[in-house]
Amino acid sequence: MSTARRHAAVVYNPIKVDLRKLRRAVEKAETGSGWGRTRWYATSETDAGQSVTREALAKGAAVVLAAGGDGTVRAVAEVLRGKSVPIALLPAGTGNLLARNLDLSLTSLDASVETAFGEAERTIDVGVATITREKDSTEEHVFLVMAGLGLDAKMIAKTNAKLKKAVGWLAYVDAGMRALPELAPVRLRYRLDGLPEKPLTAHTLIVGNCGALPGGILLIPDATPDDGILDIAALKPRGRFGWLRVWNKITWENGVLRRSAAGRMIIDLSTDVKDVTYFRGRRLGIALESPQEFQLDGDEFGTVTAVDCFADRGALTVKVPG
What we know:
Pfam families: DAGK_cat, YegS_C. The protein is of the alpha+beta class. 29% of the residues lie in helices and 34% in strands.
């Protein structure tokens, strides 16, 4: 297909983006790159982005720009999974989780749009989760960064949307405080890569395709988005100071000490923190003792009784700076 005939599609959340500013940036980049006229698709309450992304593909889009936060990115990626058409990430919304983990721009709209019309790309894995509801109905969804059960999911479910819009990720602190009265460990059995089942009790279980969160928190330090592996973190605070040890592990040890050789030496010489356990594999099956709230990339997905996750290696193509 010739460059002159190529066109881009923008899938955007009209509530979260400055459409006038976004149109100016896209028109400038498409003209400078010699592309055809970009087509625009708005998400809605009934379509987080999947349906309009399918429409964009049917009309021949050569790249899909996702603008509207982590939920919009996840919805677009769900359709582009396994396709040759790449996704481009535009800074919008609260977390910009995937862009953060791929070291893409979080602040410059112009730079992100220019990247979308460039030629540089990389492939990454997509996490795929099949969830089972209480009446044994099943659904398949993707996640790009993390899926979670326990306090993590309860906190997201209780987040005030208006407060989140006003103060961003600080709204999760408020939600966390409101989730504490319901704090109880999650009891489950898990099967990793077809091995025998094992029991696990944890306050939070995170399944990661990537490891970084806003605020410099490196929750899962060994997670990389292109190794075909899921990295799992179980938070199991014990005793009065358990949550303090968890916090110290994921902020100080993961976020600070791991950045230097001296810091890594300190970690190697320190006693392992049993309040946080890591393991990894290509496929993880989870059977819950009781229904639990579940989240994907920061969006609540209701309660589930079982989850089966795997890493679909190299299933998504992402535009990156040249």
